[in-house]
Amino acid sequence: MAFGARDPNLFSLFLLSLLAITSAKVFFEERFDDGWESRWVTSDWKKDENVAGEWNYTAGKWHGDPNDKGIQTSEDYRFYAISAEFPEFSNKDKVLVFQFSVKHEQKLDCGGGYMKLLSAGIDQKKFGGDTPYSIMFGPDICGYSTKKVHAILHYNETNHLIKKDVPCETDQLSHVYTFILKPDASYSILIDNVEKQSGSVYSDWSLLPPKKIKDPEAKKPEDWDDKEYIPDPEDKKPEGYDDIPKEIPDADAKKPEDWDDEEDGEWTAPTIANPEYKGPWKPKKIKNPNYKGKWKAPMIDNPEFKDDPNLYVYPNLKYVGIELWQVKSGTLFDNVLITDDPEYAKQLAEETWGKHKDVEKKAFDEAEKKREEEEAKDDPIDSDAEDGDDDADDDAGEDSDADAKLEESTDSAETKEEDKHDEL
Ligand SMILES: *[C@@H]1O[C@H](CO)[C@@H](O)[C@H](O)[C@H]1NC(C)=O
Ligand SMILES: *[C@@H]1O[C@H](CO)[C@@H](O)[C@H](O)[C@H]1NC(C)=O
């Protein structure tokens, strides 16, 4: 690297980046190889109600490598909760990278594919929907309107949803979701190693009260003219304007042959709307030369705002978990990673998802083709109708209620979690 010798700044930058790579710390990495069961604890949550679903250890129906397995939800209408422990750490002054891959083989109608980071103090055997978590991250799909990446941060005893919209993948293939949180409270969200959203925790979540607020004391000055248009003082009502009648006799009307003036009274033609009549006179409008724009209260520092330099800090991270309700099973998780090094995460995604994605896509296309052929064989006349038959019931329920779907999209994940509990 010739530039290094010439430019001491660049050279030290180069050394620094080398250092950064070599000092990458991996807090947790799970590729679901043999022995994964000893690292993960299936919760007893919902077991006594017989609605706890079983995980299937599999590469799925289509994959890049049959030996590269993950864990997949395998029963419909079930709750799933599983978690793994890692040595407790704090992300203070560190970059935090949370990454995993997820594949919805079932053509997900309504359900999540997210994971949670949890802090010390939970009971893994009781891990469930009500267990407090620190970060929840990953895709969530419901109907046509909710197709988003959740990024929920727990702060000050409350779960806060990201305010920006981050669309998620909706196909039936594997995708890698990455959440990066940095000590300057900036963050980014990647899907398949491509950044989809980034910004500051300060502005994209409402963890703290806003820094600036409208001055509540400020008042619009009396003489503030905020009318953009005014009646033209020069405009005058044309002479005779008010004499134009609203209705006029219908010139085409004829007195009926059998009209008897004595019995029926004097015949008058029926009236019709006068095309000349333009309504009451109004002067035309012109731009107000004194228009000052809409009045806005000046922004002032919010007295309620107190900065928290540890806004991004989770001092006792200790578990990673999956907690889901699935109407239709088939969601497969793999390659869970928690590290302080985005480069390492990127490499891992390339080595796993990146290496396999083309073969997986090909296998999926073949499986689809086979499915379509078989369906056409079953019912050669009406193969189209047969197509989505599997999900006809679920679809009908959802599609018929566009409002519910709209609501769903504005719902918080918490509400949805409550809903899912109520559903049974
Ligand atoms: C597990 O997944 C494989 C591959 O999709 C499938 O063949 C098998 O039937 C599944 N097992 C269970 C118990 O769902
Ligand atoms: C925490 O939340 C409570 C209740 O909403 C609020 O009064 C308090 O100001 C919050 N503290 C911080 C540091 O944001």
UniProtKB/TrEMBL annotation:
CC annotations in GO: endoplasmic reticulum lumen; endoplasmic reticulum membrane
Acidic residues: compositionally biased ranges: 381-401
Ligase as UniProt keyword: no
Biased composition, class Basic and acidic residues, residue ranges: 212-257, 350-380, 402-424
Localization terms from the record: Endoplasmic reticulum lumen
Range of residues in the leader sequence: 1-24
InterPro entries, per database record: Calret/calnex, Calret/calnex_CS, Calreticulin, Calreticulin/calnexin_P_dom_sf, ConA-like_dom_sf
GO molecular function: calcium ion binding; carbohydrate binding; unfolded protein binding
Keywords: Calcium, Chaperone, Disulfide bond, Endoplasmic reticulum, Glycoprotein, Lectin, Metal-binding, Repeat, Signal, Zinc
Chief location of this protein within or outside the cell: endoplasmic reticulum
Residue ranges, annotated region (Disordered): 212-280, 350-424
GO biological process, one term: protein folding
Transmembrane segments: none
Keyword Metal-binding among UniProt keywords: yes
Residues that hold an alpha-D-glucoside according to the record: 114, 116, 133, 140, 323
Disulfide partners: 110-142
Gene3D superfamilies referenced in this protein's UniProt entry, alphabetically: 2.60.120.200, Calreticulin/calnexin, P domain
Family statement: Belongs to the calreticulin family.
Name under which the protein is recorded: Calreticulin
Taxonomic lineage: Eukaryota, Viridiplantae, Streptophyta, Embryophyta, Tracheophyta
Gene name of the record: LOC108987726
